[in-house]
Specification:
With 605 residues, the chain is mainly α. 57% of the residues lie in helices and 4% in strands.
Amino acid sequence: MPFLQDWIHKLEEGAWARYVKIAAFCVAVLFLALTYDFRAYRNLATPEAMDSAQLARNLAEGNGYTTLFVRPFSLYLVQSHNQAQAVDALASAGTDFAQIKTPHPDIANPPVYPLMLAGLMKVLPFHYPLNLQSGFWSNAGNFWRYEPDFLIALFNEILLLAVVVLTFFLARKLFDTSVAWLSAILVLGCELLWRFSVSGLSTMLLLIIFIGLTWCILWIEEEVRDPQPQFRRLLALAIAAGVVTGVGALTRYAFGWVIIPVALYLILLGGQRGAWHALVAVAAFALVLTPWMVRNFSVSGTPFGTAGFAVVEGTSAFPGFQLERAIHPDLSSALGLSLYVHKFLGNLRPLLQDALPKLGGSWASMLFLTGLLLNFRSTAVRRMRYFLLMCLALFIVVQALGRTQLSEESPEINSENLLVLLVPLVFVYGVSLFFILLEQMALPLRELRYVVKTVFVALCCAPMIFALLPPKTIPVVYPPYYPPEIQRIAGWMKPNELTMSDVPWAVAWYGQRQCVWLTLNYQDDFFAINDYLKPVQALYLTPETTDTKFAADWIRADEHSWGSFVLQAAAQGKIPASFPLVHAPSGLFPERLFLTDADRWKLQK
Protein backbone atom coordinates (compact mmCIF):
# COMPACT_ATOMS: atom_id res chain seq x y z
CA MET A 1 0.00 0.00 0.00
CA PRO A 2 2.76 2.56 0.80
CA PHE A 3 4.32 1.64 -2.52
CA LEU A 4 1.05 2.47 -4.32
CA GLN A 5 0.73 5.80 -2.48
CA ASP A 6 4.32 6.70 -3.32
CA TRP A 7 3.69 5.82 -6.99
CA ILE A 8 0.55 7.99 -7.12
CA HIS A 9 2.40 10.87 -5.45
CA LYS A 10 5.13 10.71 -8.09
CA LEU A 11 2.53 10.78 -10.83
CA GLU A 12 0.64 13.76 -9.41
CA GLU A 13 3.33 15.97 -7.89
CA GLY A 14 6.62 14.15 -7.85
CA ALA A 15 9.37 13.45 -10.36
CA TRP A 16 7.06 11.77 -12.84
CA ALA A 17 4.50 14.56 -12.99
CA ARG A 18 6.39 16.44 -15.70
CA TYR A 19 6.71 13.36 -17.88
CA VAL A 20 3.05 12.50 -17.41
CA LYS A 21 2.04 15.98 -18.60
CA ILE A 22 4.36 15.74 -21.62
CA ALA A 23 3.07 12.27 -22.47
CA ALA A 24 -0.55 13.42 -22.18
CA PHE A 25 0.22 16.42 -24.41
CA CYS A 26 1.86 14.16 -27.03
CA VAL A 27 -1.12 11.81 -27.02
CA ALA A 28 -3.46 14.80 -27.45
CA VAL A 29 -1.34 16.11 -30.34
CA LEU A 30 -1.35 12.71 -32.06
CA PHE A 31 -5.11 12.40 -31.61
CA LEU A 32 -5.63 15.92 -33.00
CA ALA A 33 -3.43 15.24 -36.05
CA LEU A 34 -5.15 11.95 -36.86
CA THR A 35 -8.60 13.48 -36.42
CA TYR A 36 -7.73 16.47 -38.60
CA ASP A 37 -6.31 14.27 -41.38
CA PHE A 38 -9.44 12.14 -41.42
CA ARG A 39 -11.91 15.00 -41.09
CA ALA A 40 -10.42 18.07 -42.77
CA TYR A 41 -7.51 17.02 -45.03
CA ARG A 42 -7.57 18.08 -48.70
CA ASN A 43 -5.20 17.28 -51.55
CA LEU A 44 -2.95 20.02 -52.89
CA ALA A 45 -5.10 22.93 -54.01
CA THR A 46 -2.71 25.77 -54.90
CA PRO A 47 -0.48 26.24 -57.97
CA GLU A 48 2.52 27.08 -55.78
CA ALA A 49 2.31 23.80 -53.86
CA MET A 50 2.10 21.65 -57.00
CA ASP A 51 4.86 23.68 -58.62
CA SER A 52 7.19 23.07 -55.66
CA ALA A 53 6.28 19.38 -55.58
CA GLN A 54 6.99 18.72 -59.26
CA LEU A 55 10.22 20.70 -59.03
CA ALA A 56 11.27 18.62 -56.01
CA ARG A 57 10.56 15.41 -57.91
CA ASN A 58 12.77 16.58 -60.78
CA LEU A 59 15.55 17.20 -58.27
CA ALA A 60 15.02 13.84 -56.57
CA GLU A 61 15.17 12.03 -59.93
CA GLY A 62 18.43 13.73 -60.92
CA ASN A 63 16.99 16.09 -63.54
CA GLY A 64 18.48 19.21 -61.95
CA TYR A 65 16.68 22.42 -61.07
CA THR A 66 14.31 22.13 -64.02
CA THR A 67 10.55 22.41 -64.28
CA LEU A 68 7.77 20.72 -66.21
CA PHE A 69 5.51 23.71 -65.51
CA VAL A 70 6.58 26.22 -68.17
CA ARG A 71 5.47 29.84 -67.97
CA PRO A 72 5.42 31.75 -71.29
CA PHE A 73 7.02 34.70 -69.48
CA SER A 74 9.83 32.39 -68.36
CA LEU A 75 10.34 31.39 -72.00
CA TYR A 76 10.55 35.07 -72.90
CA LEU A 77 13.16 35.86 -70.23
CA VAL A 78 15.33 32.82 -70.95
CA GLN A 79 15.12 33.31 -74.72
CA SER A 80 15.89 37.04 -74.56
CA HIS A 81 18.88 36.45 -72.30
CA ASN A 82 20.33 33.61 -74.40
CA GLN A 83 19.86 35.56 -77.63
CA ALA A 84 21.67 38.54 -76.12
CA GLN A 85 24.55 36.31 -75.01
CA ALA A 86 24.80 34.27 -78.21
CA VAL A 87 27.61 34.70 -80.68
CA ASP A 88 26.14 35.41 -84.12
CA ALA A 89 28.41 32.91 -85.78
CA LEU A 90 27.21 30.10 -83.54
CA ALA A 91 23.51 30.99 -83.56
CA SER A 92 21.12 29.51 -86.07
CA ALA A 93 17.40 29.53 -86.79
CA GLY A 94 16.95 26.22 -84.97
CA THR A 95 18.80 27.17 -81.78
CA ASP A 96 16.71 26.43 -78.69
CA PHE A 97 17.23 29.81 -77.02
CA ALA A 98 14.11 29.34 -74.86
CA GLN A 99 15.43 25.98 -73.57
CA ILE A 100 12.08 24.25 -73.98
CA LYS A 101 13.18 21.37 -76.19
CA THR A 102 15.33 20.28 -73.26
CA PRO A 103 14.29 20.41 -69.57
CA HIS A 104 13.40 24.05 -68.93
CA PRO A 105 15.28 25.73 -66.05
CA ASP A 106 13.07 26.90 -63.21
CA ILE A 107 13.36 30.63 -62.52
CA ALA A 108 10.21 31.06 -60.44
CA ASN A 109 10.98 29.26 -57.16
CA PRO A 110 13.69 29.74 -54.52
CA PRO A 111 15.54 26.49 -53.83
CA VAL A 112 15.36 25.62 -50.10
CA TYR A 113 11.84 24.16 -49.86
CA PRO A 114 12.02 22.11 -53.11
CA LEU A 115 15.39 20.74 -51.95
CA MET A 116 13.85 19.65 -48.64
CA LEU A 117 10.94 17.99 -50.44
CA ALA A 118 13.41 16.30 -52.79
CA GLY A 119 15.23 14.88 -49.76
CA LEU A 120 11.89 13.65 -48.40
CA MET A 121 11.16 11.97 -51.73
CA LYS A 122 14.52 10.24 -51.57
CA VAL A 123 13.93 8.95 -48.04
CA LEU A 124 10.27 7.95 -48.27
CA PRO A 125 8.74 5.75 -50.95
CA PHE A 126 6.61 8.12 -53.04
CA HIS A 127 4.17 6.17 -55.22
CA TYR A 128 3.00 8.51 -57.98
CA PRO A 129 0.51 6.21 -59.76
CA LEU A 130 -2.94 6.36 -58.18
CA ASN A 131 -3.82 3.87 -55.47
CA LEU A 132 -7.48 2.92 -55.83
CA GLN A 133 -7.27 -0.29 -53.80
CA SER A 134 -6.53 0.93 -50.28
CA GLY A 135 -9.47 2.21 -48.26
CA PHE A 136 -7.54 5.28 -47.09
CA TRP A 137 -6.52 6.46 -50.57
CA SER A 138 -9.79 5.55 -52.26
CA ASN A 139 -13.49 5.72 -51.47
CA ALA A 140 -15.46 2.71 -52.72
CA GLY A 141 -12.95 2.29 -55.51
CA ASN A 142 -13.02 5.97 -56.49
CA PHE A 143 -10.16 8.41 -56.12
CA TRP A 144 -10.06 10.07 -52.70
CA ARG A 145 -6.55 10.99 -51.51
CA TYR A 146 -3.34 11.27 -53.52
CA GLU A 147 -0.55 9.55 -51.61
CA PRO A 148 2.32 11.97 -52.49
CA ASP A 149 0.09 14.95 -51.57
CA PHE A 150 -0.63 13.36 -48.20
CA LEU A 151 3.03 12.60 -47.49
CA ILE A 152 3.96 16.22 -48.23
CA ALA A 153 1.16 17.38 -45.92
CA LEU A 154 2.35 14.98 -43.21
CA PHE A 155 5.87 16.39 -43.48
CA ASN A 156 4.53 19.92 -43.05
CA GLU A 157 2.39 18.84 -40.10
CA ILE A 158 5.59 17.65 -38.41
CA LEU A 159 7.06 21.09 -39.09
CA LEU A 160 3.94 22.62 -37.51
CA LEU A 161 4.55 20.57 -34.36
CA ALA A 162 8.11 21.90 -34.35
CA VAL A 163 6.63 25.42 -34.51
CA VAL A 164 4.52 24.58 -31.45
CA VAL A 165 7.58 23.41 -29.50
CA LEU A 166 9.65 26.46 -30.51
CA THR A 167 6.77 28.77 -29.54
CA PHE A 168 6.63 27.13 -26.10
CA PHE A 169 10.32 27.71 -25.39
CA LEU A 170 10.24 31.23 -26.80
CA ALA A 171 7.22 32.18 -24.66
CA ARG A 172 8.84 30.66 -21.59
CA LYS A 173 12.00 32.66 -22.27
CA LEU A 174 10.08 35.92 -22.63
CA PHE A 175 7.44 35.38 -19.93
CA ASP A 176 6.84 32.22 -17.86
CA THR A 177 5.70 28.61 -18.08
CA SER A 178 1.99 29.44 -17.87
CA VAL A 179 2.18 31.78 -20.86
CA ALA A 180 4.31 29.21 -22.68
CA TRP A 181 1.82 26.35 -22.28
CA LEU A 182 -1.19 28.41 -23.25
CA SER A 183 0.61 29.95 -26.25
CA ALA A 184 1.65 26.50 -27.45
CA ILE A 185 -1.92 25.24 -27.11
CA LEU A 186 -3.26 28.16 -29.15
CA VAL A 187 -0.69 27.59 -31.90
CA LEU A 188 -1.55 23.89 -31.90
CA GLY A 189 -5.26 24.71 -32.09
CA CYS A 190 -4.90 27.36 -34.81
CA GLU A 191 -6.98 26.09 -37.72
CA LEU A 192 -5.32 28.52 -40.14
CA LEU A 193 -1.89 27.01 -39.45
CA TRP A 194 -3.25 23.50 -39.96
CA ARG A 195 -4.68 24.52 -43.32
CA PHE A 196 -1.30 25.93 -44.28
CA SER A 197 0.38 22.69 -43.16
CA VAL A 198 -1.74 20.46 -45.43
CA SER A 199 -1.58 22.95 -48.31
CA GLY A 200 1.93 21.85 -49.27
CA LEU A 201 3.26 25.41 -49.20
CA SER A 202 6.60 26.39 -47.65
CA THR A 203 4.90 28.38 -44.87
CA MET A 204 5.65 25.92 -42.04
CA LEU A 205 9.34 25.84 -42.93
CA LEU A 206 9.39 29.62 -43.15
CA LEU A 207 7.72 29.86 -39.74
CA ILE A 208 10.53 27.80 -38.23
CA ILE A 209 13.09 30.06 -39.91
CA PHE A 210 11.35 33.19 -38.63
CA ILE A 211 11.20 31.86 -35.07
CA GLY A 212 14.87 30.96 -35.39
CA LEU A 213 15.58 34.54 -36.43
CA THR A 214 13.56 35.73 -33.42
CA TRP A 215 15.78 33.64 -31.15
CA CYS A 216 18.86 35.28 -32.69
CA ILE A 217 17.40 38.73 -31.97
CA LEU A 218 16.56 37.69 -28.41
CA TRP A 219 20.07 36.41 -27.74
CA ILE A 220 21.52 39.63 -29.19
CA GLU A 221 19.29 41.63 -26.85
CA GLU A 222 20.48 39.59 -23.86
CA GLU A 223 24.12 40.03 -24.78
CA VAL A 224 23.74 43.79 -25.31
CA ARG A 225 22.24 44.19 -21.81
CA ASP A 226 25.09 42.26 -20.24
CA PRO A 227 27.40 44.61 -18.26
CA GLN A 228 30.34 43.19 -20.18
CA PRO A 229 29.05 42.10 -23.59
CA GLN A 230 31.31 39.79 -25.56
CA PHE A 231 32.15 41.27 -28.94
CA ARG A 232 32.81 37.90 -30.56
CA ARG A 233 29.48 36.49 -29.39
CA LEU A 234 27.60 39.54 -30.67
CA LEU A 235 29.44 39.28 -33.98
CA ALA A 236 28.56 35.59 -34.28
CA LEU A 237 24.90 36.29 -33.48
CA ALA A 238 24.77 39.10 -36.06
CA ILE A 239 26.22 36.72 -38.65
CA ALA A 240 23.68 34.06 -37.63
CA ALA A 241 20.82 36.56 -37.99
CA GLY A 242 21.99 37.46 -41.50
CA VAL A 243 22.44 33.82 -42.50
CA VAL A 244 19.01 32.80 -41.17
CA THR A 245 17.41 35.71 -43.01
CA GLY A 246 19.23 34.66 -46.18
CA VAL A 247 17.98 31.09 -45.84
CA GLY A 248 14.47 32.51 -45.37
CA ALA A 249 14.86 34.53 -48.58
CA LEU A 250 15.92 31.34 -50.38
CA THR A 251 12.73 29.76 -49.07
CA ARG A 252 10.50 32.64 -50.14
CA TYR A 253 11.99 35.65 -51.88
CA ALA A 254 9.69 38.19 -50.20
CA PHE A 255 11.05 37.14 -46.80
CA GLY A 256 14.39 38.69 -47.74
CA TRP A 257 13.00 42.13 -46.92
CA VAL A 258 13.17 41.10 -43.23
CA ILE A 259 16.85 42.05 -43.37
CA ILE A 260 15.63 45.68 -43.05
CA PRO A 261 14.07 45.25 -39.55
CA VAL A 262 17.05 43.11 -38.55
CA ALA A 263 19.49 45.87 -39.55
CA LEU A 264 17.36 48.60 -37.96
CA TYR A 265 17.11 46.65 -34.72
CA LEU A 266 20.87 46.18 -34.57
CA ILE A 267 21.50 49.86 -35.31
CA LEU A 268 19.00 51.16 -32.76
CA LEU A 269 19.25 48.53 -30.01
CA GLY A 270 22.43 46.63 -30.80
CA GLY A 271 24.70 48.50 -28.43
CA GLN A 272 27.70 50.69 -29.12
CA ARG A 273 28.75 48.72 -32.18
CA GLY A 274 25.21 48.25 -33.44
CA ALA A 275 25.89 49.81 -36.85
CA TRP A 276 28.89 47.54 -37.35
CA HIS A 277 26.86 44.46 -36.39
CA ALA A 278 24.08 45.54 -38.78
CA LEU A 279 26.62 45.78 -41.58
CA VAL A 280 27.93 42.30 -40.75
CA ALA A 281 24.39 40.87 -40.74
CA VAL A 282 23.64 42.43 -44.14
CA ALA A 283 26.93 41.09 -45.51
CA ALA A 284 26.15 37.57 -44.26
CA PHE A 285 22.68 37.84 -45.78
CA ALA A 286 24.12 38.93 -49.14
CA LEU A 287 26.73 36.16 -49.02
CA VAL A 288 24.00 33.52 -48.66
CA LEU A 289 21.75 35.00 -51.35
CA THR A 290 24.31 36.02 -53.98
CA PRO A 291 25.21 32.57 -55.43
CA TRP A 292 21.56 31.86 -56.21
CA MET A 293 21.07 35.32 -57.71
CA VAL A 294 24.12 34.70 -59.92
CA ARG A 295 22.60 31.39 -61.03
CA ASN A 296 19.31 33.07 -61.95
CA PHE A 297 21.12 35.84 -63.77
CA SER A 298 23.16 33.37 -65.78
CA VAL A 299 19.96 31.60 -66.83
CA SER A 300 17.50 34.46 -67.36
CA GLY A 301 19.36 37.75 -67.05
CA THR A 302 17.37 38.59 -63.89
CA PRO A 303 18.38 38.01 -60.24
CA PHE A 304 15.04 36.52 -59.15
CA GLY A 305 13.55 35.23 -62.40
CA THR A 306 9.81 35.61 -62.90
CA ALA A 307 9.32 36.13 -59.14
CA GLY A 308 11.14 39.46 -59.39
CA PHE A 309 8.22 40.87 -61.39
CA ALA A 310 5.56 40.18 -58.75
CA VAL A 311 5.23 43.90 -58.09
CA VAL A 312 4.24 44.38 -61.75
CA GLU A 313 1.54 41.70 -61.60
CA GLY A 314 -1.84 42.89 -60.46
CA THR A 315 -1.35 46.42 -61.76
CA SER A 316 -3.59 47.86 -64.46
CA ALA A 317 -0.81 47.11 -66.97
CA PHE A 318 -0.85 43.38 -66.22
CA PRO A 319 -4.01 42.35 -64.35
CA GLY A 320 -4.61 38.75 -63.33
CA PHE A 321 -2.05 36.26 -64.64
CA GLN A 322 -1.46 38.19 -67.86
CA LEU A 323 2.25 38.78 -67.30
CA GLU A 324 3.18 35.15 -66.64
CA ARG A 325 1.06 34.01 -69.60
CA ALA A 326 2.56 36.57 -71.99
CA ILE A 327 5.15 35.33 -74.48
CA HIS A 328 6.01 38.85 -75.68
CA PRO A 329 5.10 41.23 -72.81
CA ASP A 330 5.43 44.97 -73.24
CA LEU A 331 7.16 45.77 -69.95
CA SER A 332 7.39 49.44 -70.88
CA SER A 333 3.67 49.69 -70.12
CA ALA A 334 4.48 48.97 -66.46
CA LEU A 335 6.63 52.08 -66.09
CA GLY A 336 5.19 54.84 -63.96
CA LEU A 337 4.93 55.30 -60.20
CA SER A 338 1.17 55.78 -60.25
CA LEU A 339 0.59 52.11 -61.17
CA TYR A 340 2.27 50.92 -58.01
CA VAL A 341 0.73 53.60 -55.80
CA HIS A 342 -2.72 52.48 -56.95
CA LYS A 343 -1.83 48.83 -56.40
CA PHE A 344 -0.47 49.51 -52.92
CA LEU A 345 -3.44 51.58 -51.79
CA GLY A 346 -5.92 49.16 -53.33
CA ASN A 347 -4.39 46.20 -51.48
CA LEU A 348 -3.66 48.07 -48.25
CA ARG A 349 -7.28 48.60 -47.31
CA PRO A 350 -8.30 44.90 -47.14
CA LEU A 351 -5.12 44.13 -45.23
CA LEU A 352 -5.85 46.71 -42.55
CA GLN A 353 -9.59 46.08 -42.56
CA ASP A 354 -9.72 42.29 -42.69
CA ALA A 355 -6.37 40.50 -42.50
CA LEU A 356 -4.80 42.40 -39.58
CA PRO A 357 -7.77 42.28 -37.13
CA LYS A 358 -8.24 38.56 -37.89
CA LEU A 359 -4.55 37.68 -37.78
CA GLY A 360 -4.30 33.97 -37.08
CA GLY A 361 -8.08 33.59 -37.15
CA SER A 362 -8.19 33.92 -33.37
CA TRP A 363 -9.42 36.26 -30.65
CA ALA A 364 -5.84 36.31 -29.33
CA SER A 365 -4.91 38.73 -32.12
CA MET A 366 -7.25 41.33 -30.59
CA LEU A 367 -5.44 40.99 -27.27
CA PHE A 368 -2.14 41.37 -29.11
CA LEU A 369 -3.23 44.65 -30.71
CA THR A 370 -4.43 45.89 -27.32
CA GLY A 371 -1.23 44.76 -25.62
CA LEU A 372 0.84 46.97 -27.90
CA LEU A 373 -0.14 49.86 -25.63
CA LEU A 374 1.21 48.20 -22.47
CA ASN A 375 4.50 49.12 -20.88
CA PHE A 376 5.97 45.70 -20.08
CA ARG A 377 8.44 45.55 -17.21
CA SER A 378 10.82 43.24 -19.00
CA THR A 379 13.29 45.01 -21.28
CA ALA A 380 13.55 41.92 -23.48
CA VAL A 381 9.77 41.81 -23.95
CA ARG A 382 9.62 45.49 -24.87
CA ARG A 383 12.49 45.28 -27.34
CA MET A 384 11.19 42.10 -28.93
CA ARG A 385 7.89 43.91 -29.37
CA TYR A 386 9.70 46.63 -31.34
CA PHE A 387 11.18 44.01 -33.68
CA LEU A 388 7.76 42.42 -34.05
CA LEU A 389 6.18 45.76 -34.93
CA MET A 390 8.87 46.51 -37.51
CA CYS A 391 8.24 43.13 -39.14
CA LEU A 392 4.49 43.73 -39.04
CA ALA A 393 4.81 47.08 -40.80
CA LEU A 394 7.20 45.61 -43.35
CA PHE A 395 4.98 42.60 -44.10
CA ILE A 396 1.99 44.86 -44.68
CA VAL A 397 3.91 46.92 -47.26
CA VAL A 398 5.52 43.92 -48.98
CA GLN A 399 2.28 41.94 -49.06
CA ALA A 400 0.34 44.87 -50.49
CA LEU A 401 2.88 45.51 -53.26
CA GLY A 402 3.62 41.84 -53.96
CA ARG A 403 0.01 40.67 -54.13
CA THR A 404 -0.82 38.85 -57.37
CA GLN A 405 -3.70 36.82 -58.74
CA LEU A 406 -2.58 33.93 -56.54
CA SER A 407 -4.05 35.78 -53.56
CA GLU A 408 -7.29 36.33 -55.46
CA GLU A 409 -7.58 32.62 -56.26
CA SER A 410 -6.91 31.62 -52.64
CA PRO A 411 -7.27 34.67 -50.36
CA GLU A 412 -5.77 33.17 -47.17
CA ILE A 413 -3.81 30.05 -48.09
CA ASN A 414 -1.15 31.30 -50.49
CA SER A 415 2.58 31.91 -50.58
CA GLU A 416 2.06 35.68 -50.55
CA ASN A 417 0.59 35.66 -47.04
CA LEU A 418 3.46 36.95 -44.89
CA LEU A 419 1.37 38.08 -41.94
CA VAL A 420 0.77 34.46 -40.96
CA LEU A 421 4.45 34.26 -39.98
CA LEU A 422 3.68 36.52 -37.02
CA VAL A 423 0.94 34.27 -35.60
CA PRO A 424 3.06 32.49 -32.93
CA LEU A 425 4.47 35.76 -31.56
CA VAL A 426 1.03 37.38 -31.75
CA PHE A 427 -0.35 34.53 -29.64
CA VAL A 428 2.49 34.84 -27.13
CA TYR A 429 1.88 38.55 -26.56
CA GLY A 430 -1.90 38.09 -26.62
CA VAL A 431 -1.71 35.36 -23.98
CA SER A 432 0.53 37.51 -21.80
CA LEU A 433 -2.14 40.23 -21.77
CA PHE A 434 -4.80 37.61 -21.03
CA PHE A 435 -2.94 36.56 -17.88
CA ILE A 436 -2.58 40.19 -16.82
CA LEU A 437 -6.34 40.63 -17.15
CA LEU A 438 -6.99 37.31 -15.43
CA GLU A 439 -4.98 38.42 -12.39
CA GLN A 440 -7.23 41.46 -12.08
CA MET A 441 -10.46 39.46 -12.19
CA ALA A 442 -12.22 39.21 -8.81
CA LEU A 443 -13.26 35.56 -8.88
CA PRO A 444 -15.05 34.05 -5.82
CA LEU A 445 -13.04 30.81 -6.19
CA ARG A 446 -9.50 30.49 -7.46
CA GLU A 447 -10.48 27.29 -9.27
CA LEU A 448 -12.67 29.40 -11.56
CA ARG A 449 -9.47 30.60 -13.22
CA TYR A 450 -9.30 27.22 -14.96
CA VAL A 451 -12.83 27.72 -16.24
CA VAL A 452 -11.89 31.14 -17.65
CA LYS A 453 -8.79 29.66 -19.30
CA THR A 454 -10.85 26.87 -20.81
CA VAL A 455 -13.40 29.31 -22.22
CA PHE A 456 -10.58 31.46 -23.61
CA VAL A 457 -8.95 28.48 -25.33
CA ALA A 458 -12.31 27.31 -26.69
CA LEU A 459 -13.05 30.73 -28.17
CA CYS A 460 -9.59 31.04 -29.73
CA CYS A 461 -9.68 27.49 -31.12
CA ALA A 462 -13.34 27.61 -32.24
CA PRO A 463 -12.44 27.46 -35.99
CA MET A 464 -10.41 24.31 -35.34
CA ILE A 465 -13.21 22.74 -33.32
CA PHE A 466 -15.74 23.37 -36.08
CA ALA A 467 -13.30 22.01 -38.69
CA LEU A 468 -13.31 18.68 -36.86
CA LEU A 469 -17.11 18.51 -36.60
CA PRO A 470 -19.45 17.21 -39.34
CA PRO A 471 -19.73 17.53 -42.25
CA LYS A 472 -16.51 15.86 -43.29
CA THR A 473 -14.36 17.74 -45.80
CA ILE A 474 -14.04 16.10 -49.21
CA PRO A 475 -10.31 15.73 -49.97
CA VAL A 476 -10.76 15.86 -53.76
CA VAL A 477 -10.12 19.41 -54.98
CA TYR A 478 -12.49 19.41 -57.92
CA PRO A 479 -13.05 21.64 -59.74
CA PRO A 480 -10.55 21.95 -61.30
CA TYR A 481 -8.11 19.20 -60.22
CA TYR A 482 -8.97 15.55 -60.76
CA PRO A 483 -5.72 13.52 -60.71
CA PRO A 484 -7.15 10.32 -62.30
CA GLU A 485 -8.16 12.26 -65.40
CA ILE A 486 -4.90 14.21 -65.51
CA GLN A 487 -2.83 11.02 -65.26
CA ARG A 488 -4.98 9.36 -67.93
CA ILE A 489 -4.55 12.12 -70.52
CA ALA A 490 -0.87 12.55 -69.60
CA GLY A 491 -0.42 8.86 -70.38
CA TRP A 492 -1.45 9.58 -73.95
CA MET A 493 1.51 11.95 -74.32
CA LYS A 494 5.19 11.08 -74.69
CA PRO A 495 7.58 12.49 -72.05
CA ASN A 496 9.27 14.85 -74.53
CA GLU A 497 6.00 16.23 -75.98
CA LEU A 498 4.54 19.60 -75.00
CA THR A 499 1.03 20.14 -73.64
CA MET A 500 -0.72 23.47 -73.05
CA SER A 501 -3.21 23.87 -70.21
CA ASP A 502 -4.90 26.34 -67.89
CA VAL A 503 -3.67 24.16 -64.96
CA PRO A 504 -0.10 23.39 -66.10
CA TRP A 505 1.11 22.97 -62.51
CA ALA A 506 -1.35 20.08 -62.07
CA VAL A 507 -0.35 18.43 -65.37
CA ALA A 508 3.32 18.76 -64.37
CA TRP A 509 2.75 17.31 -60.88
CA TYR A 510 0.08 14.65 -61.37
CA GLY A 511 0.80 13.82 -65.01
CA GLN A 512 4.60 14.32 -65.01
CA ARG A 513 4.54 15.86 -68.49
CA GLN A 514 5.97 19.14 -69.75
CA CYS A 515 3.12 21.65 -69.85
CA VAL A 516 3.10 25.32 -70.82
CA TRP A 517 0.64 27.76 -69.31
CA LEU A 518 -2.28 28.78 -71.51
CA THR A 519 -1.23 31.77 -73.61
CA LEU A 520 -3.26 34.98 -73.70
CA ASN A 521 -4.92 34.01 -77.01
CA TYR A 522 -5.16 31.10 -79.39
CA GLN A 523 -3.70 32.96 -82.36
CA ASP A 524 -0.52 35.05 -82.20
CA ASP A 525 0.68 33.98 -78.74
CA PHE A 526 -0.17 30.31 -79.24
CA PHE A 527 1.59 30.14 -82.60
CA ALA A 528 4.57 32.07 -81.22
CA ILE A 529 5.24 28.95 -79.13
CA ASN A 530 3.89 26.28 -81.48
CA ASP A 531 5.64 27.49 -84.65
CA TYR A 532 8.87 28.99 -83.33
CA LEU A 533 9.74 27.30 -80.03
CA LYS A 534 8.22 23.81 -79.79
CA PRO A 535 5.07 22.23 -81.25
CA VAL A 536 2.14 22.10 -78.84
CA GLN A 537 0.71 18.63 -79.30
CA ALA A 538 -2.17 18.73 -76.83
CA LEU A 539 -4.50 21.28 -75.24
CA TYR A 540 -6.20 20.60 -71.89
CA LEU A 541 -8.79 23.06 -70.57
CA THR A 542 -10.60 22.67 -67.24
CA PRO A 543 -13.30 24.62 -65.37
CA GLU A 544 -10.59 27.23 -64.77
CA THR A 545 -11.47 28.35 -68.32
CA THR A 546 -14.87 26.84 -69.04
CA ASP A 547 -16.42 28.18 -65.80
CA THR A 548 -15.24 31.77 -66.26
CA LYS A 549 -17.70 34.65 -66.29
CA PHE A 550 -19.67 34.34 -69.52
CA ALA A 551 -20.16 38.01 -70.34
CA ALA A 552 -16.84 39.43 -69.16
CA ASP A 553 -14.48 36.66 -70.26
CA TRP A 554 -16.29 35.22 -73.28
CA ILE A 555 -18.59 37.75 -74.95
CA ARG A 556 -16.61 40.96 -74.30
CA ALA A 557 -13.20 39.32 -74.65
CA ASP A 558 -10.95 39.58 -77.65
CA GLU A 559 -12.18 37.52 -80.61
CA HIS A 560 -9.10 35.34 -80.32
CA SER A 561 -9.40 34.76 -76.58
CA TRP A 562 -9.69 31.24 -75.20
CA GLY A 563 -13.18 32.10 -73.98
CA SER A 564 -14.31 32.71 -77.54
CA PHE A 565 -12.43 29.53 -78.55
CA VAL A 566 -14.52 27.47 -76.11
CA LEU A 567 -17.68 29.35 -77.11
CA GLN A 568 -17.16 28.46 -80.78
CA ALA A 569 -16.51 24.85 -79.87
CA ALA A 570 -19.70 24.71 -77.77
CA ALA A 571 -22.04 26.72 -80.05
CA GLN A 572 -20.81 25.61 -83.48
CA GLY A 573 -19.43 22.20 -82.57
CA LYS A 574 -16.13 22.84 -84.34
CA ILE A 575 -12.64 24.08 -83.63
CA PRO A 576 -11.67 27.51 -85.04
CA ALA A 577 -10.01 27.37 -88.45
CA SER A 578 -6.22 27.06 -88.63
CA PHE A 579 -5.96 25.64 -85.09
CA PRO A 580 -3.76 22.55 -85.40
CA LEU A 581 -5.31 20.41 -82.63
CA VAL A 582 -8.67 18.98 -83.68
CA HIS A 583 -8.96 15.48 -82.19
CA ALA A 584 -10.95 15.14 -78.97
CA PRO A 585 -11.96 12.12 -76.86
CA SER A 586 -15.59 11.75 -75.84
CA GLY A 587 -16.92 12.33 -72.36
CA LEU A 588 -15.07 15.51 -71.38
CA PHE A 589 -16.66 18.43 -73.23
CA PRO A 590 -18.14 20.94 -72.36
CA GLU A 591 -16.88 20.93 -68.74
CA ARG A 592 -13.37 20.00 -69.85
CA LEU A 593 -11.74 20.03 -73.23
CA PHE A 594 -8.83 17.94 -74.45
CA LEU A 595 -7.56 18.42 -77.99
CA THR A 596 -4.57 16.79 -79.60
CA ASP A 597 -3.00 16.12 -82.98
CA ALA A 598 -4.23 12.50 -83.29
CA ASP A 599 -6.55 9.97 -81.70
CA ARG A 600 -3.91 9.00 -79.18
CA TRP A 601 -6.40 7.18 -76.92
CA LYS A 602 -7.13 4.80 -79.81
CA LEU A 603 -3.47 4.28 -80.65
CA GLN A 604 -2.76 3.00 -77.14
CA LYS A 605 -5.54 0.42 -77.13
